[in-house]
Specification:
The strands form 2 sheets. A 5-stranded parallel beta sheet has the order 3-2-1-4-5, sandwiched between helices. Strand 6 and strand 7 form a beta hairpin. The protein is globular, with a radius of gyration of 21 Å. Helix 8 runs parallel beside helix 11. By secondary structure, it is of the alpha/beta class. The longest helix is centred in the N-terminal third of the chain and has 17 residues. It folds into 2 domains: 142 residues, Rossmann fold, CATH 3.40.50.620; 141 residues, Alpha Horseshoe (Serine Threonine Protein Phosphatase 5, Tetratricopeptide repeat), CATH 1.25.40. The protein has 12 helices and 7 strands. Helix content is 35%, strand content 9%.
Length: 329
């Protein structure tokens, strides 16, 4: 009996832990994406265009074997599950309030069929960075200090050939796929996994070195423009960090500005934990944090002040990834 792999914010095939777990539990995997009318109604045309372009690319990467259905997930997911008699449904864990509520409704609708969450969109999943007593941090400086001691799991070695994919066109009428919409908006940012990896490589090769200055220049295209790719999961942060750590000694100096900015922004970098504290997606190096600047020499009596930027590590190269299991993230 095939398992079902439900794509959400992970529209890729490489470094996808739930794919490996789904394939390990069965000889076949049915790939599925649910177009939720509530999200369609609340999304702008550009966002929908990027989503749909990413879905078309994912479908092509699967040689057409992607079931795209429309409706409420708690109503639509059980349909193919019953059609193929799936023993389990596999997803990347979602930590946002809407995602958690949606998943709870789907679990209830599935009954005895488990909804198995493996991995997450983050390099280090929310709630992993905590105080010694397990409580979440509420002050960023303290959180950032503990952040240095965390590593991340190795990338999951997944891809299009990791599973025997079920052809959705052979399912019953109730589970037949719908056409992927095309809002007709022309985007200057190509979507899909291959495009995300090309875009990131271009930034690392040509934009990273001058990022510290160019990101403050409105007349320069100096940012990575990876936030949309991270939002839809066409690339995982592990992939991005791995590129920064290769040839690390030469990149330590130029990684500093990029890491400082991205580590303090929320798109797939910093996110809330289930407990309401601070969570993280990018893990930084195990490197001591200088607590203070030297005292102001013009005023020897003036206390040294905290310098957050000086505590930022040069590059993620100092962190050694921990070994990956199916529970990546």
């Amino acid at each position: 009996m095939p398992t079902l792999l439900w794509f959400r914010r992970d529209l890729r095939l490489r470094d996808l832990p739930p794919l490996l777990r789904a394939a390990a539990e069965s000889d076949g995997v049915l790939a599925c994406f649910v177009l939720d009318p509530r999200l369609e109604a609340s999304s702008g045309s550009r966002r929908m265009q990027f989503l749909c372009d990413s879905l078309r690319q994912l479908r092509d990467d699967l040689d057409g074997r992607l079931l795209v259905t429309r409706g409420r997930p708690d109503e639509r997911i059980p349909v193919p599950v019953k059609e193929i008699d799936a023993p389990s449904v596999h997803v990347s864990e979602d930590f946002a309030p809407y995602g958690r509520q949606r998943d709870d409704r789907v679990r209830s609708a599935l009954g005895d069929v488990p909804l198995v969450a493996t991995g997450s969109p983050y390099l280090v999943s929310p709630a992993r960075v905590t105080k010694d007593d397990g409580e979440p941090y509420k002050v960023f400086t303290s959180f950032f200090g503990r952040w240095h001691d965390m590593g991340w799991r190795s990338a999951a070695r997944s891809g299009a050939k990791s599973a025997n994919w079920v052809d959705p066109t052979k399912l019953g009428q109730r589970a037949k796929p719908v056409e992927i919409p095309d809002p007709g908006v022309e985007l200057d940012l190509p979507a899909g996994e291959a495009a995300a990896r090309r875009q990131w490589k271009k930034f690392v090769d040509k934009g990273l070195e001058n990022y510290g200055d160019d990101r403050n220049r409105p007349d320069h295209n100096g940012t990575s423009r990876m936030s949309t790719q991270l939002k839809f999961g066409t690339i995982h942060p592990r992939t991005m960090v791995a590129d920064l750590t290769s040839g690390a000694p030469a990149r330590e100096r130029i990684c500093e500005s990029w890491l400082f900015v991205t580590s303090t922004r929320r798109y797939c970098i910093i996110g809330p934990t289930a407990s309401g504290g601070i969570g993280t997606a990018i893990s930084t190096p195990s490197k001591p944090i200088p607590a203070r600047r030297p005292s102001d020499t013009s005023n020897p009596g003036k206390p040294a002040r905290q310098d957050f930027r000086s505590s930022t590590p040069a590059c993620v190269s100092f962190v050694k990834p921990v070994s990956c299991t199916t529970e990546c993230g």
